Amino acid sequence: MIYQEKAKILDKEGIRRALRRVAHEIIERNKGIENIVLVGIRRRGVPLAYRLQKYLKEIEGKEVPVGSLDITLYRDDLNLRLDQPKVGKTEIDFSIEDKDVILVDDVLYTGRTVRSALDALMDLGRPKTVQLVVLIDRGHRELPIRADYVGKNVPTSKKELIEVRLEEIDGIDEVVITEWRDE
Amino acid sequence: MKIVSWRHKDLLGIEGLTKEEIELIIETTSNMKEILKRTIKKVPTLRGKTICILFYEPSTRTRSSFELAAKYLSADTISIATSVSSVQKGESLLDTVKTLEAMGIDALIIRHSSSGVANFLAKKLSCSVINAGDGMHEHPTQALLDVYTVYEKKRRIDGMKITIVGDIMHSRVARSNIYVWKTVGSNVTVCGPSTLIPPGIENLGVKVEYNIDKALEDSDIIYVLRLQLERQKKSLFPSLREYHYLFGITEDRVKKAKKDVLIMHPGPMNRGVEISSEVADSSQSVINEQVTNGVAVRMALLYLLLGGGKLE
Predict the structure, then answer these.
(1) Can you count the helices (H) and strands (E) in chain A?
(2) How far apart are CA B97 and CA B101, in angstroms?
(3) Is B44 on the interface with A (CB under 8 A)?
(4) What is the pLDDT of residues B260-312, one digit of tens each?
(5) Domains and CATH numbers, chain A
(6) Distance (Å, rounded) from C-alpha B189 to C-alpha A84?
(7) Tell me, what's the pLDDT at B312?
(8) How far is B150 from chain A (nearest CA, A)?
(9) Residue of A70, A82, A124 lying closest to B38 (CB–CB)
C-alpha cells in the first residue's frame, strides 16, 4: 500500500474566503450575533471556531465566546477500536442555556462525531438552537445529520482521506485529498 | 510529545508502571475533573459495563469513590459487603469471585487484608482486576490520586522531596507512594519509630531518618500516614501520647519544611495523634482535595482499563 496526495482542495486563501463567507451566513441567518456562542470540536474544530470568532468581530464589532468540546467519552465506537483514544479537555466557561450554539468541525463524513458532540452538548445545558459549521463536507453520511454552513462540498470515494491542516496545529493552512493505493 | 496508550488488563500496583503511563493517568484525570464540575455529572462512556466492588475490609472513601467514579461513567455497579454475603457461609475467595465472573462482570475492584490477593485473582480471572488495597502490599489508586493532587497544586511531580511519616511497616499507602514518587523522579524520605520502619526499606531507594525535625527539613510534601491501630497486633510503640510527642505533625514542625509545603493524609485521620487538628485544617493541607481527586483518578483508570477494544 502506498500513501499519496491526490489534490489540494483549499489553500490558505481558500480557507480564509470560505470561513469569512460562513461568518456572513451565520450573521444573516441569526440576524446578528447577540445570542451566538461558538463551540469547536477537538481538535481541529477549535482553531476554526477561533477564526470564526475573529471574522464575526471584524464584521459585527463584537466578540462572541468560544469553547472547546472533547467527544471521546461520547464515542459510539470505543468497544470496536483496538487503540484507545486519549481523553481531551472540554472547556466551555460560559452557559449554553438558551443560546444559539454554533458547533464547528473540520470535516463532516459519517456524522458520528457530530452525533457524539450533540450528546455531549446536551449534557452541558439546553441550547435554544444548535447549528453546524464544517469546513469540508465529504458525503457518505451514516446518520441523518447535515451541516447548516459548509465551507466546501467535496465529493469523495470512501477510499480517500481528507486532511485538513491548520496553522495552529500543523503549521500550514491547506486541505488535501489523499489516498492509500495498492502498489 | 510521546504517544502512550494503556496496555494493561489490570491495575495491581504502582510497581511496574512507567513514568509515561503515570503521566497519561494524570492527563486523563485532569480532563475527567471537568465532568465533576458539571450540573449533570454523567457521561455515557462505560454504558453496559458492569463493575463489581468487593471489599473484605471496611472502607468509606475508597469504596464510595470507586462507586461514584463508575456511576459517573455510566457503568453498572454491584457493591458487596462481605459481612452480609456468602463469605459468611465459608465460601472461599476464589469461589466468590468466580461466581461473580460467571455473572458477566467486566471489572472486579478488590480490597483484602492479605497481600498479593489482587495479583492472585488477576491470574485466575479474565475480567480486569483493580487493587483497592491488599494487606501491606499496595494501594495504587491512593498513590495516583496523591501524585495528581500534587501535580494540580505544583504543576510538577519530579525533583521534589516527599517525607512520609508514620507507620511505614504496615502501610500499603506508603509502599505505593514510594514506588510512584521514585518512578516520576522525586526523592522520598521515610520517618517513624524504628519499630515501624521495615528493615531493608532503603532498597526501594528511599532515605530513612528517625529524627522528625531533620526529616521534615526542606520537604515539599509532608505525607502523614494513619496510625493503623487495627493492624497493631503487638505494641510497637509505648503510647499514642508519646507517638504524638515524638512524631505527630504539629504547626511548629511544619515550619521546618519549605514555606509552600503541602500536607497530605490518606484518611481517615486520628486527629491529635499523627496530625494535629490545626495542621489538618490549615491552608497548606490538601486532604480534602485528595478526596475529590480520588473520584477523578478512578474515573480515569476505569476509562483506561475498560473504555476501548479488548486486547488480544
Answers:
(1) 4, 8
(2) 6
(3) yes
(4) 999 999 999 999 999 999 999 999 999 999 999 999 999 999 999 998 765 44
(5) 12-73+89-158 (3.40.50.2020)
(6) 37
(7) 42
(8) 19
(9) A124
Q: Which three cell numbers stand for residue B188?
A: 522520598
* Facing A84 at nearest CB: one of B30, B73, B307: B307
pLDDT value, residue A79: 78
User: Which residues in A lie closer than 8 A to residue B297 (C-beta atoms)?
Assistant: none
Cβ–Cβ gap B303/A87 under 8 Å: yes
Which cell numbers in the block locate residue A49?
471556531
In this predicted model, what pLDDT tens digit does every residue of A21-78 receive, in sequence order?
Answer: 999 999 999 999 999 999 999 999 999 999 999 999 999 999 999 999 999 999 988 8
pTM for this predicted structure: 0.91
Pairing verdict, β B50-55 and B76-81: parallel
Residue A162 pLDDT: 95
CA A103 to chain centre: 7
Residues A119, B44: C-beta atoms closer than 8 Å: yes
- Which residues, including other chains, have CB under 8 Å from residue B100's CB and lie 6 or more apart? B52, B54, B78, B80, B108
Chain B residues within 8 A of A97 when measuring between CB atoms: none
Distance CA A130, CA A152 (A): 20
Work out the average pLDDT over B150-178. Answer: 96
pLDDT value for B178: 98
Closest CA of chain A from B96, distance in Å: 28
Of B5, B6, B34, the CB nearest to A90: B34
Give the CATH number of domain B19-135+292-306.
3.40.50.1370
- The residue type found at B232 is Q
pLDDT band at B1 (very low <50, low <70, confident <90, very high): very low
CATH number of B140-290: 3.40.50.1370
